[in-house]
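User: Can you recover a sequence for this backbone? Please restate the input before giving your answer.

Assistant: Of course. Working from this structure:
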């Protein structure tokens, strides 16, 4: 049931999130120009707003949903079909002007995917059966005919049905509000967020009801229920001040910036997974905030996305900005007061890294990746494992270091096991175990369906790697000599003196955001002639695909597979941030930018990996201002 809801949430979110800009534009038009009640009332400008709400936004959502399921043709069909729903709930005045009823967002969320699936099935049925020369005719007429049929169905069935559903849901919300029961929704909202079920609730229910209320009242409390940044802020503050574990405590301030200012709520989910009882704090905080909003009749004019304090306050209607801010403060304060004694007394059950790995697995489940991962997670017997492949997006940096470290770890007990690295789309057919980040597991399964999948949060210090070590070394005494192929790639590759140079090492840098740090590494690679300037955005994109944070205070930013043609020659740069750079809750003191052609850079990565085994040396590298010392260590 949970997986089904998560998949539904994925689809709903996939239709809504790309079009959030349209919601924001509609919200700003309402907040600024609504007459009366706006900051600068203007009846002419605000007349744009109904057309965006009733026509533009449903069409965008339906098009996106259709395209998700059936490509461009599915998108066009989705846009055609939703117009039937819109027309089905429209009425007309005597002058012929259109007066539209309820916004058809929920109708769009149905018609779009249905249209995409229908045209996809038609294309599959026609594959290989189209008469030559009639392809364009058939393709265009099929979209037009099926789109017309769905529009008619939408006019007579889906539009009126969705109107009835929205009426019932809105009436239910009114009952909750009138009986002061709406705050109890927080009991379900906060756990749903941690389980990544919030998309199904927020975009499937809250947003359509919120639009209905905002159309009539100019605001809706429904927009305040899920994105309020206060509950998460209070939880993270409790960890920052009272957590007995120093590593977790030190990570909280960076997480606060990401969550409160950036609006990425999932950053605090691992802190709840470490101590499930602490979720009482955010629940209590949100309950009090919703109660306060209900008493003072608060609401937002449009959805606040992402859920940052900036987006939250920007959607406050005129005259309520201060009250909305107080609402956030109440949520944070109550969450902090309730969470603090729980954090202080309970400490942390398990490490932050374990919780982050669990969080990543939950996130993957919300994207429909669980079933595939489970199918390939059955452990092999130790004597069946002959080749282990560490795979990342490009196969250039993070997987190379992970493979080197794990190879060194098992070489005494299992010299017969080959440990290599590659890109996730090029895992060899003879791979027995593939080690990949959770977000890449589906691609890994497509590349190597025969392999056991080991999913990790980072390549250097992950509990799953400890489990794999135990699995592989359980027959250590019977290990055969290593095959020639098992020679570490890093040792086989010659160290090019020009790959890491003194000018490529920067120490004592002031902390910046992770994007700025990645761009700084890319800029230095470019200035030293290793890469074209176009390689820099590919490094940022690589981190968006899967985090370049390796563990142990090290991040290895590098470009995506598609950007390899932007690399002129192999090169490495080292940027040292003594106070750390926040990588989604983890601190990286060493940001090592990589541009690789072939295997030339692997020798230096091997040296870096060796330094990780010397804890004292590693800590020195994170703080020293001796450039020559870093150069000598890594070369």
């Amino acid at each position: 049931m949970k997986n089904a809801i998560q998949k539904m949430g994925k689809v709903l979110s996939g239709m809504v999130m790309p079009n959030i800009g349209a919601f924001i534009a509609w919200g700003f038009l309402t907040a600024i120009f609504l007459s009366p009640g706006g900051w600068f009332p203007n009846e002419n400008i605000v007349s744009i707003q109904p057309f965006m709400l009733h026509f533009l936004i449903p069409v965008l959502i339906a098009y996106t949903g259709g395209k998700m399921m059936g490509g461009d043709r599915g998108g066009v069909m989705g846009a055609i079909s939703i117009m039937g729903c819109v027309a089905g709930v429209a009425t007309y005045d005597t002058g012929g002007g259109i007066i539209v009823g309820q916004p058809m967002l929920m109708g769009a969320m149905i018609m779009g995917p249905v249209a995409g699936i229908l045209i996809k099935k038609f294309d599959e049925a026609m594959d290989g059966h189209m008469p030559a020369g009639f392809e364009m005719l058939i393709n265009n007429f099929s979209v037009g005919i099926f789109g017309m049929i769905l529009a008619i169905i939408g006019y007579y069935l889906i539009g009126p049905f969705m109107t009835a559903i929205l009426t019932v849901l809105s009436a239910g919300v009114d009952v909750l509000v009138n009986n002061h029961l709406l705050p109890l929704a927080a009991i379900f909202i906060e756990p749903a967020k941690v389980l990544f079920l919030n998309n199904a609730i927020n975009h499937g229910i809250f947003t359509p009801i919120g639009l209905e209320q905002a159309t009539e009242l100019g605001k809706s409390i429904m927009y305040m229920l899920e994105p309020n940044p206060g509950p998460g802020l209070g939880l993270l503050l409790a960890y920052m001040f009272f957590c007995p574990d120093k590593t977790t405590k030190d990570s909280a301030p960076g997480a606060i910036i990401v969550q409160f200012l950036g609006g990425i709520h999932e950053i605090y989910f691992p802190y709840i997974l470490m101590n499930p009882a602490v979720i009482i704090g955010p629940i209590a905080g949100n309950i009090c905030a919703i109660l306060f909003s209900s008493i003072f009749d608060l609401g937002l004019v449009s959805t606040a996305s992402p859920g940052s304090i900036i987006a939250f306050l920007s959607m406050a209607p005129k005259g309520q900005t201060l009250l909305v801010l107080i609402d956030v403060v109440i949520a944070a304060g109550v969450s902090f007061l309730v969470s603090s004694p729980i954090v202080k007394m309970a400490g942390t059950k398990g490490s932050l890294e374990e919780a982050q790995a669990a969080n990543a697995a939950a996130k993957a489940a919300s994207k429909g990746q669980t079933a595939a991962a489970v199918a390939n997670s059955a452990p092999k017997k130790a004597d069946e494992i002959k080749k282990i492949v560490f795979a990342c997006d490009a196969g250039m940096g993070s997987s190379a270091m992970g493979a080197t470290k794990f190879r060194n770890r098992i070489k005494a007990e299992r010299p017969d096991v080959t440990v290599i690295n590659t890109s996730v789309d090029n895992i060899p057919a003879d791979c027995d175990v593939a080690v990949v980040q959770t977000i890449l597991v589906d691609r890994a399964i497509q590349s190597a369906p025969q392999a056991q999948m080991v999913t990790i949060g980072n390549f250097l210090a992950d509990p799953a790697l400890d489990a794999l070590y135990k699995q592989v070394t359980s027959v250590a005494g019977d290990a055969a000599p290593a095959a020639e192929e098992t020679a570490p790639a890093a040792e086989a590759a010659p160290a090019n003196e020009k790959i890491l140079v003194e000018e490529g090492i920067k120490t004592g840098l002031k902390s910046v955001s992770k994007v700025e740090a990645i761009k700084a590494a890319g800029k230095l690679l470019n200035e030293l002639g290793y890469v074209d300037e176009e390689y820099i955005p590919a490094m940022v994109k690589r981190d968006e695909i899967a985090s370049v944070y390796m563990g142990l205070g090290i991040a290895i930013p590098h470009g995506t597979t598609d950007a390899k043609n932007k690399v002129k020659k192999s090169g490495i740069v080292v940027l040292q941030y003594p106070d750390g750079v926040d990588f989604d809750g983890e601190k990286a003191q060493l940001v090592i930018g990589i541009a690789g052609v072939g295997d030339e850079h692997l020798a230096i990565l091997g040296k870096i990996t060796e330094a990780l085994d010397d804890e004292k040396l590693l800590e020195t590298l994170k703080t020293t201002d001796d450039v020559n010392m870093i150069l000598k260590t890594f070369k």
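That completes the design. Residues 367-375, 476-496 have pLDDT under 50 and may be disordered.
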